[in-house]
Amino acid sequence: MNWIGYRVVFxxxxxxxxxxxxxxxxxVTRPYLxxxxxxxxxxERLVRDRAATATQMATDSxxxxxxxxxxxxxxxxxxxxxxxxxxxxxxxxxxxxxxxxFRRRFLSSYQSTALVYPEHxxxxxxxxEIEFLSPHTLDTADPVYLVGYVFxxxxxxxxxxxxxTRLQFGGERGYGWGKVELVSLRNADGAFSYTVDCGGHRPVxxxxxxxxxxxxxxxxxxxxxxxxxxLVGRExxxxxxxGASITHFGVVYAPGGxxxxxxxxxxxxxxxxxxxx
Length: 277
Fold this sequence. Notes:
The protein is α+β, with helices and mostly antiparallel strands. The chain contains four helices and 22 strands. It is globular and about 65 Å long. The two termini are about 20 Å apart.
């Protein structure tokens, strides 16, 4: 077996904003933690932990590129989805089961604007609203958790398990958003009730007919019913500033799409899925 699977559960301790799109003056959040956001937070923590041992400066962008590449090569991971505690376990709440109820229970927003002095009035065009996944349900105040799966290669030497205890996800981190606590890390044979083959070059997840895709999936000959969207990100390269380099993964199926037949998907870099022939 080339990969060892783990189920990872975080408790959310502050609002979580995973950038998606802008509607009017509202920055809309995704209702889940993407693999790319997990990769970024884990890479940052691993680099800073390495810098603490004085083997590399945390301000060296080469270190982030090196460790980020290692994370993608030595680890594979799913997206993380909101969950509630139930009978000493954690039950994932899927947004597509009842989107209206999900939004009412889990999503809120924060509004702010810049002020103009000495008039003490709002600066024109500065009003904005940021949507977030709440750390507690809005109706019953139950704590919200994030459940996902990490697969470590048998040759992985990264101290990723230690890093999981000190991660911060998403946007607005300077305001304290995205803080999580690791509450469970245990071995797992599958992922979200799907079977996983851990013997190949990458972990392969089997999605039965009629079941949902749980990550952005690159289009192929697979028959899938669901929404598609362009998947775009920003990176920091040596020849550019923070976020100035744009990466484009193409048009992909969004999480929640339905497999019209049984299909197998490899878990690739950033948690993206690729259909296996």
